[in-house]
């Protein structure tokens, strides 16, 4: 904003930049999340409520956000022949994505392929869960 106001002064549209004397703090750098250790993952999955175990596995083994995993439909999986099964992370009737760049295709981990047989064969994979439920469970 300061650059724009300086430009308006330079072009003669303003006499001075009214915010020139405002001191701006340095850009804050967010602290990165720490990665769970193998023991922490085992503990998380061991003590997780049965309702959340599968969605947590999807998040851990695919890199999906909780909202992306909870919003999975059976139609979001596609076979690519000898390359295996893939998950299409895309907007659907259950969820929107944070940004257009969030739309992607993810190879499905073999553990998740095995879990699919115990999940609904059509419609939502996690029909009784909301993003809020999962977020609270993670917390």
Average per-residue pLDDT, rounded, comes to 87
Largest sheet: 3 strands, antiparallel
Instruction: Provide the gyration radius in Å.
Output: 23 Å
CATH topology of the largest domain: hpI Integrase, Chain A
SS content category: mainly alpha
CATH architecture of the largest domain: Orthogonal Bundle
Count helical runs.
Answer: 6
Q: Biggest sheet, strands in spatial order?
A: 1-2-3
Characterize the quaternary organization of these chains. Answer: single chain
Residue share in helix: 25-40%
Can you describe this structure in just a few lines?
The chain is mainly alpha-helical and 139 residues long.
Structure characterization notes:
The protein has 139 residues and is mainly α. It has two domains: 1-30, no CATH class; 38-138, Intergrase catalytic core (hpI Integrase, Chain A). The chain is built from six helices and three strands; from the N terminus they run ααααβββαα. Strands 1-2-3 form a three-stranded antiparallel sheet, with no helix packed on it. β1 and β2 (85-89) form a beta hairpin. It is elongated and about 70 Å long. It starts with a helix and ends with a helix. The mean pLDDT is 87.
Attribute tags:
2 domains; three-stranded antiparallel sheet; mainly alpha; hpI Integrase, Chain A; 139 residues; 3 strands
């Amino acid at each position: 904003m300061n650059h724009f106001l300086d430009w308006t002064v330079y072009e003669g549209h303003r006499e001075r930049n009214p915010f020139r004397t405002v001191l701006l703090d340095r850009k804050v750098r967010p602290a990165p999340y720490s990665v769970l250790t193998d023991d922490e993952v085992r503990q998380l999955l061991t003590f997780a409520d049965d309702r959340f175990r599968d969605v947590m596995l999807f998040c851990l083994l695919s890199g999906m956000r909780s909202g992306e995993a909870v919003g999975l439909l059976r139609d979001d999986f596609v076979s690519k022949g000898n390359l295996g099964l893939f998950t299409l992370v895309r907007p659907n009737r259950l969820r929107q994505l944070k940004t257009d760049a969030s739309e992607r295709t993810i190879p499905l981990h073999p553990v998740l392929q095995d879990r699919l047989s115990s999940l609904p064969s059509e419609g939502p994979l996690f029909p009784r869960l909301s993003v809020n439920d999962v977020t609270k469970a993670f917390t």
